[in-house]
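REQUEST ID: PR-0412
SUBMITTED BY: lab tech R.K.
PRIORITY: routine
TASK: structure prediction, single protein chain
INPUT:
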Amino acid sequence: MIDVNDLRKGVTFEYDGNLYKVLDYHHHKPGRGNATIRVKAVNLRTGTNLEMTFTSGDRVQDVRLDFHNVQYLYSDGQFYHFMDLDTYEQPAIPAEVLGDSARFLKEGLELKLTFFEGEPIDVELPLTIDYEVVEAEAAVRGDTATGVTKKVVTETGLQVQVPGFVNVGDRIRVNTSDGSYVTRV
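STATUS: complete
OUTPUT:
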């Protein structure tokens, strides 16, 4: 068991028989009374977001997680399939569990897969991923005083706001935490 004061962003815990990963953490100490801890968490099995409020001193069940390096293979629409780089096993994760992380996946991408008691429950993406631009809006010539941006579509269908000089065929680096443009590669 761990104290709720030890919960931080990224920590995984078990509560009421469900697995949760902390997305946001806020500690509030009023002038009188006990502190309250507000946690925004995602249910790792269903993919639903939930806000929980605990009082200082509450405890939740700590979980033991295993991490495996995997390579993304393909999606069949319902499941995303990966290959373990050590054992060559091919675990699959339901689309609703991956949530927004699924939009960054491309074939051959290596990442970490999180397992709980042999069940794959979450992915840890690299900080940045390189993509090829396959579709780009036309830039307005001469409009450079305001740092003009345009929308492009990458090889995976991901839409990114980029500077006006990025064209079809260019490779760009995208930050996976917020989906923003980093640089042209």
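NOTES: The chain is about 0% helix and 55% strand.
REVIEWED BY: pending
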